[in-house]
Amino acid sequence: MSYLDKNIRILSWARHKIHVAIAIAEALEYLHSRTPGVIHRDLKSNNILLTKHLEPKLTDFGVSRGVVESTMTSGVGTPYWTAPEVLEGERYTEKSDIYSFGVVLSELDTGRIPYFDAVMEDGSKARPFYILQKVMSAAIRPSFSRDCPPRIQRIGAACLSFDPRKRPTARELVLELLGKYSDVM
């Protein structure tokens, strides 16, 4: 998403970002609906390419797996985008991808990497290990800008729920982003 890094201020939720978010959610819905379902396991902004028309394409399926018990090991993915339960050693599920989507949604909103604004108790910039400890204890999650629409903040919060059972499915996410399922989150 380096295009977004350079142009985030000219992109709006109403005209651009919502379409990117919907298309990423639809890609997850497609993966998760296969038989067996496919879990990306490394969803992050660097694994999303944008066409010249700002259509996102998921890439880097090197660590993706079909949902088969023996392939759902922990320890794969990029830590800042990884769900807390996976950081704790639990197996990947579709809900792990949903958490990662919530992190990507934060990036899409702010144009910054997750936890860019995290600080330690003494006010210094937070170090990666500190951040991951806070993620695993539900004490921190990626932030959204003050200008982010409340509906997007609500969707992001649902995706970033510490309890995976409280995260939406990819289908619910698509419907909510389209504005057709507001009772879910």
Automatic annotation (TrEMBL):
<dbReference type="InterPro" id="IPR008271">
    <property type="entry name" value="Ser/Thr_kinase_AS"/>
</dbReference>
<dbReference type="GO" id="GO:0004674">
    <property type="term" value="F:protein serine/threonine kinase activity"/>
</dbReference>
<dbReference type="GO" id="GO:0005524">
    <property type="term" value="F:ATP binding"/>
</dbReference>
<dbReference type="Pfam" id="PF00069">
    <property type="entry name" value="Pkinase"/>
</dbReference>
<dbReference type="InterPro" id="IPR011009">
    <property type="entry name" value="Kinase-like_dom_sf"/>
</dbReference>
<dbReference type="InterPro" id="IPR000719">
    <property type="entry name" value="Prot_kinase_dom"/>
</dbReference>
<protein>
    <recommendedName>
        <fullName>Protein kinase domain-containing protein</fullName>
    </recommendedName>
</protein>
<feature type="domain" description="Protein kinase">
    <location>
        <begin position="1"/>
        <end position="178"/>
    </location>
</feature>
<dbReference type="InterPro" id="IPR051681">
    <property type="entry name" value="Ser/Thr_Kinases-Pseudokinases"/>
</dbReference>
